[in-house]
Amino acid sequence: GDSVTQMEGPVTLSEEAFLTINCTYTATGYPSLFWYVQYPGEGLQLLLKATKADDKGSNKGFEATYRKETTSFHLEKGSVQVSDSAVYFCALEGGYNKLIFGAGTRLAVHP
Amino acid sequence: DVKVTQSSRYLVKRTGEKVFLECVQDMDHENMFWYRQDPGLGLRLIYFSYDVKMKEKGDIPEGYSVSREKKERFSLILESASTNQTSMYLCASTLTSGGSYEQYFGPGTRLTVT
Fold it and tell me: Which residues of A touch B (CB under 8 A)?
């Protein structure tokens, strides 16, 4: 069945460092892909999405490009801030408006 | 702004108790979902509903049931709570139209079963 694999965390970075969180997927067809973020004590919120191959989603300085040849949707940010500390989830659309999530990657950014 | 609210942020129950978790959304969304979130496992779908009185099993429905009597409200029921149901429970909702698939989440209920 469809699935999402994310790099294990935690990822620990200093402020202003470059961030990459890897995400690969297995799916039939070309599902929409998402990154969600969960700040401490909160539910998940959509960070960005891409609906077809080669689309780039972007928001708040984060970017991810839908790569069908490598079945990947890696999350990147050029300069992280302490306020970016959170858990990041990669997800794909699994039909019937369902989402299939990866295990999540915790990011900790230190001053 | 879409708002999804959950009845409790923290809940402590005893083994064997019947537990109700309530979720309400205010944006007239057709679809609603219940997930549990456990470290290293991400979010796993328990049940979802695409209309009033309709329900579908997700990936891990055992030990749970749901109720959707009104469009805005989706309840998760633990018939007889067990310690392995200690978890964070997240509710979400989404529109069916527009192909957006963006799910809006509530803040979660952290349930501890002792």
Answer: 4, 32, 34, 41-46, 49, 51, 89, 93, 96-99, 101-104
Token pair 């328990």 is found at B46
Checking if the pLDDT of B29 tops 70, the result is: yes
Question: Residue A99's beta-bridge partner residues?
Answer: A93
Q: At residue B98, what are phi and psi to the nearest 5 degrees?
A: 85, -5
pLDDT at B2 over 70: no
Under 8 Å CB-to-CB from A94, ≥6 apart: which residues?
A: A2, A27, A31, A100
Q: Does residue A58 have a pLDDT over 90?
A: yes
- Considering only the beta carbons, identify the residue of A34, A98, A102 that sits closest to B42: A102
The answer to whether A84 and A35 have CB atoms below 8 angstroms apart is: no
